[in-house]
């Protein structure tokens, strides 16, 4: 019996077997849900409401990653600079935002920031009062920027010292060196982990739901909580939310993989077909 | 007597407690080819790297094309002075240091355009001529990774020449090359010296090249230039015991 099973199994391609395992897991989950009090109709009724949070999740993360990349770039340049001021500021920034919980940072920016304004300056107090969305974007950006500072620093340092010296020897200023020589080379080291950070951020953006937000700007998880709790249908609501995040991260992971593959070409010496007349195949020479 | 293109006076350089250069004096006049040689660790590379301040000297003065440099804090004025010396002194490195994200042509026009603010078309024109001069006109659109070591070094020479320097400094330009690729680089350097009368400072162990091309040879030993003169006398009749010993080992 065991022998026959193993014989049968050996005849099936690995990928097919892998797919079968996934199908079995899915069936078990569906079965468990069917035993439980899982209201499919309720879920379908509220699917659209929760899904409307998707663009907000993407907008939040899109804005936050722009902020994070900007901060990480200057953070990394600061950490690598010889200036005590630049090193001090960036060191303080990364230490604080990596050393405290993201959720605490969100509440600091959302609820505690307005309190910093002196009582006799109500105007300042108003401008420091942010919406949940604004506070969430800023907190995510600051927090991820602090982590990504290390990614950018490593990327910049991955460009060999010889490159810097060659640029210096040609009379380039620091700014010219960075913009024209170092950063264009660092970028291919920086992009893949930055993609990972973005995917992680998609998930962490759910924390913004805890700040509360106006109906029009609610992201996925806030919407799921709202309807799930009101109707005592948390299972259905959070399954939808989880599925939406999962879908989102899976899509970006595919993008990420393609991007990484594209970035690796050009630096790897490969057999290349050229369209130059008279040259059919160019095989590169070893360096 | 013409003014020297490069004047090094009382140049000292220490790394921590270790003094690598112990008061070097060296003048290089226009059209001169100075070959600097010596044991590894004698300080000959450090000498070149101090001239364009890739290494900050501990003390002494450097003068290149009339610009005088002394070690000191990197204020704006100091940085600009260093940059103008670097523009006047082209440098070729042992391991080429071409910019891998740029094509050969882009490697050549990068500094003329960004540093000197040259018109791009003009820079391309000059670059194409220089590539022909080093025998690589057909490689202009290749990336450095697709070139052999010898080709890379010839591109690196052209890249430095594109800045129209007053002196070219070569830091062991053939040491990282496979033996069969050395001659193509040396012949480019030779024609640079003989045909365009480029002022050159060359740190190398290639004594054949030195004998043929050098106008002056300087033997560096333990941070000092202990012997200096035309190759005919330095190679044929070395005066200093250390020079003698070194030449016996390499010839």
What would you say this structure looks like, in words?
The complex is a heterodimer of chains A (287) and B (251). The C terminus of chain A is likely disordered. Chain A has a two-stranded antiparallel ribbon. Chain A is flat and about 75 Å long. In chain A, α9 packs antiparallel against α10. Chain A is mainly α and 287 residues long. Helices cover 39% and strands 25% of the residues of chain B. By secondary structure, chain B is an alpha/beta fold. In chain B, a hairpin with a 2-residue loop joins β9 and β10. In chain B, α4 crosses α5 and α5 packs parallel to α6. In chain B, strands 6-7-8-3-9-10 form a six-stranded mixed beta sheet, with helices on both faces. Chain B has a four-stranded antiparallel beta sheet with strand order 2-1-4-5, covered by helices on one side. The interface between A and B is medium-sized, with 24 and 31 residues.
Helix tally of chain A equals: 12
Gross morphology of chain B is globular
| Structural class category of chain B | alpha/beta
Question: How helix-rich are the residues of chain B, as a percent range?
Answer: 25-40%
Oligomer: heterodimer
Tell me how many strands of chain A there are: 2
Structural class of chain A: mainly alpha
**If you average the pLDDT of chain B, what whole number results?**
95
Fold blueprint:
The complex is a heterodimer of chains A (287) and B (251).
Chain A: H1 2-10, H2 14-35, H3 40-51, H4 54-80, H5 84-99, H6 102-112, H7 122-128, H8 132-158, H9 161-169, H10 174-204, H11 220-230, H12 234-264, E1 272-273, E2 281-282
Helix pairs in contact in A: 3-11, 3-12, 4-5, 4-8, 4-10, 5-8, 6-8, 8-10, 9-10, 10-12, 11-12
Chain B: E1 4-15, E2 18-29, E3 33-37, H1 44-51, E4 59-64, E5 67-69, H2 76-88, E6 89-92, H3 104-114, H4 120-133, H5 149-161, E7 167-171, H6 179-195, E8 200-203, H7 207-213, E9 216-221, E10 224-229, H8 231-236, H9 241-250
Helix pairs in contact in B: 3-4, 3-5, 4-5, 5-6
């Amino acid at each position: 019996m065991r022998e026959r099973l193993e014989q049968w199994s050996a005849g099936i391609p690995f990928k097919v077997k892998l797919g079968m395992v996934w199908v079995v897991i899915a069936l078990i989950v569906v079965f468990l849900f069917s035993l439980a009090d899982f209201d499919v109709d309720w879920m379908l009724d509220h699917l659209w409401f929760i899904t409307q949070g998707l663009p907000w999740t993407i907008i939040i993360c899109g804005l936050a990653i722009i902020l994070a990349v900007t901060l990480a770039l200057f953070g990394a340049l600061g950490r690598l600079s010889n200036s005590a001021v630049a090193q001090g500021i960036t060191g303080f920034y990364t230490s604080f935002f990596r050393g405290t919980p993201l959720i605490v940072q969100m509440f600091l920016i959302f609820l505690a920031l307005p309190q910093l304004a002196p009582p006799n300056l109500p105007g300042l107090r108003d401008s420091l009062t942010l919406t949940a969305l604004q506070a969430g974007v800023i907190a995510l950006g600051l927090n991820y920027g602090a982590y990504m500072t290390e990614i950018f620093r490593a990327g910049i340092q991955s460009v060999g010292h010889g490159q810097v010296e060659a640029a210096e020897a040609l009379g380039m200023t620091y700014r010219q060196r960075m913009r024209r020589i170092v950063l264009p080379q660092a970028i291919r080291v920086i992009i893949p982990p930055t993609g990972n950070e973005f995917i992680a951020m998609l998930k962490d953006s759910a924390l913004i739901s805890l700040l509360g937000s106006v109906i029009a700007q609610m992201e996925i998880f806030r919407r799921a909580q709202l309807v799930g709790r009101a109707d005592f249908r948390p299972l259905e609501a959070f399954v939808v939310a989880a599925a939406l995040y999962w879908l989102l991260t899976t899509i970006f992971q595919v993008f990420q993989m393609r991007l990484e593959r594209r970035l690796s070409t050009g630096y790897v010496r490969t057999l290349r077909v050229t369209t130059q007349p008279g040259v059919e195949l160019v095989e590169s020479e070893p360096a | 007597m013409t003014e020297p293109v490069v004047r090094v006076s009382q140049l000292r350089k220490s790394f921590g407690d270790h003094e690598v250069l112990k008061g070097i004096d060296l003048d290089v006049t226009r059209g001169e080819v100075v070959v600097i040689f010596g044991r590894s660790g004698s300080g000959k590379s450090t000498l070149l790297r101090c001239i364009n301040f890739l290494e900050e000297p501990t003390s002494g003065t450097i003068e290149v094309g009339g610009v005088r440099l002394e070690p000191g804090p990197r204020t704006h004025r100091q940085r600009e002075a260093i940059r103008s010396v670097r523009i006047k002194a082209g440098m070729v490195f042992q391991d080429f240091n071409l910019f891998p994200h740029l094509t050969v042509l882009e490697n050549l026009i990068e500094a003329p355009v960004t540093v000197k603010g040259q018109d791009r078309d003009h820079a391309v024109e000059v670059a194409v001529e220089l590539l022909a001069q080093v025998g690589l006109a057909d490689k202009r659109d290749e990336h450095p990774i697709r070139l052999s070591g010898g080709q890379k070094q010839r591109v690196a020479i052209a890249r430095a020449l594109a800045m129209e320097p007053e002196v070219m400094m070569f830091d062991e330009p053939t040491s990282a090359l496979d033996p069969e690729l050395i001659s193509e680089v040396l012949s480019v350097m030779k024609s640079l010296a003989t045909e365009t009368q480029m002022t050159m400072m060359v740190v190398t162990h290639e004594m054949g090249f030195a004998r043929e091309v050098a106008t002056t040879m300087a033997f560096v030993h333990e941070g000092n230039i202990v012997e200096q003169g035309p190759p005919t006398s330095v190679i044929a009749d070395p005066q200093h015991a250390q020079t003698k010993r070194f030449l016996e080992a390499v010839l």
